[in-house]
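User: New here, please read:
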Amino acid sequence: MVKNKVLSESAYISELAIHGIQEKKGNDIIRLDLRNIFSSVSDYFVICHADSSTQVKAIANSIEDEIFKATQTEPWRKEGLEYGEWILLDYVDVVIHVFRTDKREFYGVEDLWGDADIKYYKSA
């Protein structure tokens, strides 16, 4: 029973993150559902990109604001804020990757999780 509550919470956090991305016009938003993958590190990955480091940082800030407003939760860990090329926001069960366009193409994170269920979202 507790597991279902955790999964529902992680799905909610991922949706809040997607809303934060849409608010700042992030591109090619996807959510990878990793719950059925044996060695997964979290329940969901949310991935998007933007054309400039300034927009990448704005998206990351928007995500944090949306999640905090709704849940009073801060990310467990944040990486990449200094350069704004690949910002990672780790909410334990949800990990959000905000890339600059060229970095997303180079690293291809979503390709590493080919077994995941992928949901595509429209940019706002």
In short: Helices lie at 2-23, 53-71, 101-107. Residues 2-23 form the longest helix (22 residues). The chain has three helices and six strands.
